[in-house]
Amino acid sequence: MPNVLVTGGAGYIGSHACKALTDAGYTPVTYDNLSTGWADAVKFGPFEQGDLRDRARLDAVFAAYQPIAVLHFGALSQVGESMREPGLYWDNNVTGSLVLMEAAVAAGCEQFVFSSTCATYGDQDNVVLNEDSPQAPINAYGASKRAIEDMLSGFEAAHGLRHVIFRYFNVAGADPEAKVGEFHQPETHLVPLILDAIDGKRDALTIFGTDYDTPDGTCIRDYVHVCDLVDAHVLGLKWLESGKDSRVFNLGTGSGFSVREVIDHARRITNKDVPVVEGLRRPGDCTKLVSGSARAVSELGWSPGRSTLDEMIRDAWRWHQTGHYDK
Ligand code: UFG
After folding, report:
1. ipTM associated with this complex
2. Mean pLDDT of the chain
3. Residues within 6 Å of ligand 1 by CB
4. Per residue in 8-27, pLDDT tens?
5. Do residue 38 and residue 76 come from a single domain?
6. CA-based radius of gyration for the chain
7. Helix or strand or coil: residue 279?
8. Does position 126 have pLDDT exceeding 80, yes or no?
9. Is 177 among the domain residues?
10. Do 236 and 262 belong to one domain?
11. pLDDT digits (tens, 9 = 90+) for 35-47
């Protein structure tokens, strides 16, 4: 089975990608510094611990495994943290990606699938975004991902590094078999925080802002099931393997849900009360981020069939009750 280097394979999305790659006949080789990931989450292939900024370590891993492609998930990804500590994001995400791309090119590995984000679009009220929408990030996380997209263009022009860029909307849910799932410490994402509030692991869910210009005053996001999301990456890998040109794809569903709507769905799916407190806006948050996914559907043949809010919350709830990683 051909090897694929998966940076961030010990994290939430990367670990699900490793499972999907295994199912599709590849061997995922996880490369992760465990700064936010979990060794326990590496269940589907070899694990090489290392930092993206460590060129010598990367060179050794490329030489040992001769991967046919890189799936690059490894990154810091918290919008709020990126506003407080932008340097961390430029260093980990941008410098780390630069060193990774240089190592890949030096090793002759010229197929690269990159996790980007809808945060590169910034705040564009009441627009359904597509891949040609202007990019104007309003936080350092989005800016760091935007910069990496630019680097990829330069590396393709100069060194032939063909790539697929996926701009994610809000990823939620978990492996339906609960072998892997979402587990961040500290947790900042809406769905797991709601589930924590439901089962008493936290006192209440704080809604960050109720005065946005939306029907119920809370922010609107486009939620996509993590299993659908990683399936797109396997399709992206096959796209590159078939010799096609570099391409950017949004991964969302085109449907937006407000924070209050997500809470209501969670209440209904779990049949439990969600303690809620109304709080201030969180710096860096956009009012509404919703994607068109027509390009991924028509060109990649992607079909986000599990991305209903009910299924995402049901799978997240199953994982929440049965799965966890040790520190
Ligand atoms: N929210 C709350 N309370 C919380 C946590 C979140 O009200 O305790 C709200 C946020 O304000 C936001 C929504 O729930 O309106 C979703 O927040 P998340 O933190 O779950 O997700 P974000 O939209 O902030 O971030 C996600 C990804 C990022 C990506 C970003 C693009 O985690 O990687 O989408 O905006 F960049």
Report:
1. 0.95
2. 95
3. 77, 79, 117-119, 141, 170, 188-190, 193, 205-208, 219, 221, 259, 282, 285-286, 289
4. 999 999 999 999 999 999 99
5. yes
6. 19
7. strand
8. no
9. no
10. no
11. 999 999 999 999 9
Contact 197, 277 (CB under 8 A): no
For residues 264 and 241, membership in a common domain is answered with no
Pocket test for ligand 1, best of 182, 259, 264, 277 (most atoms within 8 A of CB): 259
Q: 202 and 140, same structural domain?
A: no
Question: How many domains in the chain?
Answer: 2
- CATH classification of the domain holding 305: 3.90.25.10
pLDDT per residue as tens digits for the range 79-121 = 889 999 999 999 999 999 999 999 999 999 999 999 999 999 9
- Residue 117 sits in a domain of what CATH number? 3.40.50.720
Say how many Å lie between the CA of residue 1 and the centre of ligand 1: 37
Q: Tell me, yes or no, whether 204 and 134 share the same domain.
A: no
Q: What six digits make up the tokens of 223?
A: 């939620």
Cα separation, 61 vs 65, in Å, equals 6
* E-strand stretches of 41-89: 47-49, 69-72
* Same domain, yes or no: 33 and 95: yes
pLDDT band at 272 (very low <50, low <70, confident <90, very high): very high
Q: Rounded distance, CA 73 to CA 11, Å? A: 8
Pair (61, 49) in one structural domain: yes
pLDDT band at residue 64 under the 50/70/90 scheme: very high
Answer yes or no: do 53 and 41 share one domain. Answer: yes
141 in catalytic set: yes
Distance CA 69, CA 240 (A): 9
Q: Which of 26, 141, 212, 223 is catalytic?
A: 141
